[in-house]
Amino acid sequence: MPEANEQFNLSCPIPISDYPNILLAHGGGGKLMHQLLEKLILPSFDNAQLESRHDGAVFDIGGQRIAFTTDSYVVKPLFFPGGDIGALAVNGTVNDLAMCGARPKYMSAGLIIEEGLPVETLWRILKTMKQAANSAGISLVTGDTKVVERGKGDGIFINTAGIGLIEHDLDIRPVSVRPGDVVILSGDIGRHGMAIMASRENLSFQSKIESDCAALNSVVQNLLDEKIQIHCLRDLTRGGLATSLIEIAETSGADIVIDETKIPVRQDVAAACEILGFDPLYVANEGRFICFIPQQYMARTVEVIDKHATDTKSAAIGRVESVTTKQNGLVSMITRIGSTRLIDMLSGEQLPRIC
Amino acid sequence: MPEANEQFNLSCPIPISDYPNILLAHGGGGKLMHQLLEKLILPSFDNAQLESRHDGAVFDIGGQRIAFTTDSYVVKPLFFPGGDIGALAVNGTVNDLAMCGARPKYMSAGLIIEEGLPVETLWRILKTMKQAANSAGISLVTGDTKVVERGKGDGIFINTAGIGLIEHDLDIRPVSVRPGDVVILSGDIGRHGMAIMASRENLSFQSKIESDCAALNSVVQNLLDEKIQIHCLRDLTRGGLATSLIEIAETSGADIVIDETKIPVRQDVAAACEILGFDPLYVANEGRFICFIPQQYMARTVEVIDKHATDTKSAAIGRVESVTTKQNGLVSMITRIGSTRLIDMLSGEQLPRIC
B331 and chain A: CB distance < 8 Å anywhere? Predict the structure, then answer.
């Protein structure tokens, strides 16, 4: 295979002298991860699907459009206020499918268990996985279990992959974003990361902060049922709201302006962020998303999203100023004091292993 | 949710006093793993797909039958004679799809990387993944990368999930096995496990044993093109030939008799097994499979399989004596000396982390 040998003779595309070894920050959703993906991983599998930089791949099977997605979960600790790794592993994949505008249908689960994990712990995790799957209407149809020696894993890692059906004609993805689109944020941000942080460091804040971990398929389905012309959806996981906006701006060429005063952050979350030195814009969420829609759907979108939330309200936080496909778009924020701040990716991440 | 609460009040179905913690053997493909799957994991997600105990789930999308499968790879060392974790992760999922009689089409990859892995190592693994994917004609369309702290992983773990198209009317799975079916073994057994063992322990045998790691989709496609009425296929990975036969016997109720003298084991592999105290029947393979077919297709099947192999030959190693769906079937072997030996699952596995 001359082609294969040729590939092997190419040198490694990331300058090895800069970062010869993988750092935690390479998994953090920030610049280093971005570089690893863009320079090493995506070019290794160069194809149109990966090029779309979407939460999942979209393709046709038997004339039916489907979405296909995967994520591994390495959250620490395994149980945290508002959820556990099992709920996260199911909801995360359900949400990635929902962000493709797909109805979650089938999923797989791959368990990598560290020797010594109490069987009772595994059982509790399986139970929450089943509850989350039932609740989202997705069937776990295939799986795999591996065990690694003590000290070669960390309790349990879970990979899930999901298949969802796209039952409408919209083309929901970053490149569908248009000038004038309104950015709707589905609720307050920063809860998941702060809940993990609090439980990891055994901190007790005045009020207990619970993760926002939740399945988003029913609210997305409701938006679709209401014929809202969604251009793009993105859940705000690793890297938070800021990173999601930057990724969409870079992929679509959209210049996005957001208004800091419109972004809901609960007071206890804001206080915890301040104490610990985190910026809520970059803190991970597991039940929040942004939605890019034409202006005329704004009121209806907010109304639909708010029907699904009991303890938070959605908000129009910004708009797409312009779109040029010739270069990466920029994200800027009008701050509380009226100045404009350019929103950039963090180098690594504020919190490793939050999902 | 009263139903959910009720589930939570049930006690853990594996007697916690016997095995309160996960052991390495729970991942080994033997009795303990079987117990974990049958008593804890499968009941947690009770559904018809998982009940079929197949290498993958089979269902319809848009009128097209598809197979969906997942596996995580934790092989140690990452590079071994005849392959590496990248080739294994692609071929393993390609093979699980092929064993469902499906043409591999799309796959996902989830990487869990330990902090400190050389970027160059990651790059080499990605390159072999791409080569293996290209060679099997499967597209890697979606992925995920996580990084865990040093000492919380082991270099890299890879999960792959795959989607394949079933483009024929056969119902290839354990319950399709019929009395009189011939069992064809596609080649010599035991190479992968012994190659891993040799490289792990730094043993040097007289001749270098290389893993049989290979994609099986083209040979299966060829069998289908030849209109061979395949009843069941199974690749001989964790737990080897013996465990695969037992799993099929248990799921289908088939009593299977095999002939030890017909099972090809290379002399160097047999010698290595003897020195190290392993039984080749239980040693993992990554490019071998068994095929259950009606007697009249025997010669043609052997001919087709042998066209695809350069260094081994297939063999008819046994037959299905009877099938009763009322109870688990048994696997017995006529030994070299003419006695009959009942083939049972090992408790754990001979070799942990071979895939």
Answer: no
Is B34 or A179 the better-scoring residue by pLDDT? A179
Residue A143 and residue B41: Cβ atoms within 8 Å? yes
Q: Where in chain B is the domain with CATH 3.30.1330.10?
A: 56-166
Is the model's pLDDT at A220 over the cut of 60?
yes
| Fold (CATH) for B174-343 | Phosphoribosyl-aminoimidazole Synthetase; Chain A, domain 2 (3.90.650)
CATH of domain A56-166: 3.30.1330.10
| Average pLDDT, integer, range A50-66 | 86
- C-alpha distances (whole Å) from A337 to each of A191, A228, A259, A269, A316 are 24, 34, 11, 21, 19
CA nearest A53: which of A233, A251, A331, A237? A251
Q: Across the beta sheet with A232-235, what order do the strands follow?
A: A232-235, A289-293, A182-185, A315-323, A254-259, A331-334, A340-343
Flag if A123 and B40 touch (Cβ within 8 Å).
yes
Torsion of the alpha carbons at A145, A147, A151 and A157, rounded to the nearest 10:
0
Three-state DSSP state, A293: strand
**Residues in chain B within 8 Å Cβ distance of A144:** 70-72, 159
Check A163 against B163: CB less than 8 A apart.
Answer: yes
For residue A187, pLDDT over 60 is answered with: yes
The residues of chain A that CATH labels 3.90.650.10 are: 174-343
pLDDT of A2 > 60? The answer is no
